Structure formats: structure tokens, C-alpha cells
Amino acid sequence: MGGISSIVSPPRYRRMPQRPRSEGKRAKIVDAAMRHFAEQGYQAARMGDIASALGIAKGSIFQHFGSKDGLFFEVYKKAVRSFPRYLDAPAEVCEAGFFEVLRYWLARTEHLLHEDWIPYRVSLLGNYGTDLSLKREINRFLLAEDPYGTVPFVRFGLEREELRRDLDQEMIVSILDWTMERFQDALLTEELDPGLFRRQGNVMEKKEARIAQFLDVLRRAIGTERRG
Amino acid sequence: MGGISSIVSPPRYRRMPQRPRSEGKRAKIVDAAMRHFAEQGYQAARMGDIASALGIAKGSIFQHFGSKDGLFFEVYKKAVRSFPRYLDAPAEVCEAGFFEVLRYWLARTEHLLHEDWIPYRVSLLGNYGTDLSLKREINRFLLAEDPYGTVPFVRFGLEREELRRDLDQEMIVSILDWTMERFQDALLTEELDPGLFRRQGNVMEKKEARIAQFLDVLRRAIGTERRG
DNA sequence: ACAGTGCTATGACTTGAGGTCAGATTATGG
DNA sequence: CCATAATCTGACCTCAAGTCATAGCACTGT
Q: Cβ–Cβ of A195/B135 closer than 8 Å?
């Protein structure tokens, strides 16, 4: 039996892992590419530059990621996965409620941006600066992974009776995703890319007021009423 | 006097118009290009194809528009200018109020789309499917021209006391632009590009309900309160 | 140790798109 | 009907994405 099984059984594949050294290199490429995309934009970033910055051949990158689109998609996923989820806010903030969590993250955006602006810029590129075919992939990913944890966050708000129950949950999630993304993009681009969204000087000092206004609007829109 | 002036005055330039045949050709190029961009997307559209579809040389297009970006920008402007402004709604709809105008246009989007989907697709490309440098140009244009007439429309809502006065007018305009653009894009892409935004079947039958929900949300957010 | 076996890396090569320009062509003015 | 300036042309250039045969490398079993 031992003899027979030793001949018959080894079931085709040799090593399942198959990714001992590969993973490390992929990660290095993604890191370098992220910097290049963030600094140059999607179109202007050159595959050749990324390769030579790493001291490897351009062909290698294509063997790993297939195409420039494929590489950018990996970069985008890594960038977005590095962002915090709503409910990662400190416990005391979460206890203060749904809208306090929003306020916390909006106020914190600027701070996080200064720590490391690169993934934010990449996320901007994914939202507005690539082809529609890639954009479709990106949306599929965002739906599948819910990287900011919007769905559990909305469920949290519903459980605390802070959100209206007469709306589709999906509607609330969409509205939150859209408006938060857009509002944050506006805050970010004022620094990363002045003049990309709206005009007007004296932005910094008004920022807190605008956040307050925005939250007020959002609370009226999707929150349970609690004021006269 | 006549003699002297006829010698002295012809002040250097010969014909100010300078655009007798040019305008017509530019328009033809923009038309053909719009079809190509809409059908292929920005990247996949080929300058050579556009030229040969018109039976002219590729170089001509570059002499008129400088670059692919430049051509797309003109195409985008033409597409967006072809859309109706909020206050173009029939008089009886306008008299019914701010939010009825919104409902009118949202319900009508699908209809307009079927009449001629090409400019809508181009506007989608401008919003999400080009490079950030172009996106910046586009935003400058949208700010300068206000092609949907959002600013006068908001002023209309304020005058009728249908919109809150405790918000910056600019804030209301931004919110309206963002959410309407995004909601319409979602409606459009379900038909133009299924699976680009959110999931879920049975879209058509739910469309009216979603429009109603969306308007309810928007009314609470920026409208004066009028309900218990 | 060593040979065998498949991943992985290489870099010269191909493809194909945007973009250029000197010269031909065409419209306008006298 | 010639002079002049605008416009058009298409061969040409540049350069970046993407390919592929080959070389190299790490790991396994004997």
C-alpha cells in the first residue's frame, strides 16, 4: 500500500504556497509604483521609471501585474486598504454616537493627509483620473470589500436609533459613501491640488465651520429628528 | 481725408474674422470626435480614426485643437452646454417649486438619455474617465459657466423660501451639484454601463421610488422644514 | 552533492499611438 | 490673374506600453 500510494497519490501539484519570494517583490513594486503614480499621475507615470527606480527590468513588472492598469489597480487597493474604517475611531468617540464619529474623521483627515499624502492622492486618481474600464473594476472592489466599513457603520447608526429606518439601508450607505468621498476630496484637493474643486481663499480658517455645516446637513438628511 | 485714411488707417491686420471656413470644420471635427469618445472611451478613441471618419488628415485635427486633451475638452464643453438648465423646466413645473423642478429633471433623465445618449456618456467621461490635469480644466469650466444654472436655481429656491437661509449659498450649490451629478450618474450608468456603480437587479421598477427617497433626503438636508 | 524542474528575471524587440513640420493646396485681395 | 496668407496634408518622429525567447535561480528528491 505504501508503495502504491507513494506512486499514485502525490496529487500533481508540488508546493501549494508557490509564493515564497514572489510576495516580497510584488510588495516592493507596489510601493514604488504608488509613489510614482501619486507624484506623476496615472498617465504621466512611466513603467520604465518604476522599474529602474527598483533596479529591475520593466518586463518583470509586466510578468507580475500584466499591464499598467493591473499594476495601478493593485496600488489602488493597497492605498484604500491602508485607510481607517469608521468604527476604528477611539471607543469614547464611538460611544458619543454616529455623527460624532463622522466629525472625528473629517477633522482628522487633514492630519492623516500630512502624515502620508501618497495613498490619498492615489485614491483621488482612482476616483477621477483613470479610464472608465478601470473605474469599473475599482467600483466592483469597493462594493466587495467595503474598505471603510460603511455598511457596519450604518448598521451601528441604525441600532443606536440615530439613523432613519424608513430609508433603504443601501440608500443610506450610498449617500454616505458619495457625500463623504466628495467632501473629503474637496478638503484634500484644496491642499493636494489647489483649484481642482471649488474656488475661494481663506480655506483653512473656514474648515471647521464647513465641517459643522456639512454634518448638520447630513444629520437632517439621514438622521432621526431630535431637534425642534 | 478719405484718401489719407485709406492709406494710413488699415491697421495692420487684414481680416479680423479669420474664421470663415474654420468654424464649420471645427464643429464637424467636434461632432465626429464626440461620437468616437462616447463609443470608445477617452483612451481607446483614436485620433487617426476620427480623422479618417471625416476623410481628413490627422494633422489637421492637431492644428485645430493642439492635442487629444484639447479636442476632448472642446467635445466636453459642447456636450455639457447641450444639457438643459434647471430653470428651463416648463413654467408650471417651476411654479410648483424648487423640489418639483428637481423631480421633473430626475424623472426626465432617462427620457433624455434615450433621445441622445452620446453627450451624457461624454459627460461621464469628463467626470471620471480622464486624467486629473484635464479634470482640473473641466472644473474651472464648470465653475465659470455654471452650465446647469445651479446658482440661479438655488437663488430661486431661496427667494421662494424653500431653501434654508442659514447655510452658505455656495454650500448649497456644492451639495446640489455633487449629489445630483452623482445620483444621475448612477441612474445613467445602470443603463450605459451596467455594474459601474451599485449592484442589485430590478432597477427600472424601483427607479421612481428611489427618486422619491432621494428628493426626500435632499429636502430634509437643505430645505426649510415644513412637516411635523 | 547534484541534477532535474519549474518559477522568475531579463532586455532587446515589436507595436502603435500621439504629435510635428516642410511643402502642397486653397481661398482671398488687388 | 498674380500675390499672399491661411489651411491642409501625409510622411515622419518620438516614445511608452507590452512581448517573448532565453538565461538564471531556488527548491526537491535521490
A: no
Q: b/e per residue, A190-223, with b = 16+ CB within 10 A? A: bebbeebbbeeeeeeeebeebbebbbbbbbbbbb
| In chain B, residues 43 through 102 whose Cβ sits under 7 angstroms from any atom of nucleic acid strand D | 56-60, 63-64
CA distances in angstroms from A171 to A163, B154, B222, listed in the order given: 12, 25, 18
> Does the C-beta of B25 come within 7 A of strand C?
no
Instruction: Assess whether A24 (CB) lies less than 7 A from strand D.
Output: no
- One of 1.10.3720.10, 3.30.1120.10, 1.10.10.60, 3.40.630.30 is the CATH number of B21-80, namely 1.10.10.60
- As its CATH architecture, domain A21-72 has Orthogonal Bundle (1.10)
Q: Model confidence over B26-66: pLDDT tens digits? A: 999 999 999 999 999 999 999 999 999 999 999 999 999 99
- What are B100-146's pLDDT values in tens digits? 999 999 999 888 888 999 999 999 999 988 888 899 899 889 989 99
**From the candidate CATH numbers 1.10.357, 1.20.120, 1.10.540, 2.40.50, the one assigned to the domain spanning B84-222:** 1.10.357
Please give, rounded to a whole number of angstroms, the shortest distance from the CA of A54 to a CA of chain B: 26
Q: B125 to each of A17, A18, B10, B118, how far by Cα in Å?
A: 41, 40, 47, 11
Q: What is the ipTM of this complex?
A: 0.86
Q: Is the CB of A25 under 7 A from strand C?
A: yes
| Among chain B residues, CA nearest to A197 | B139
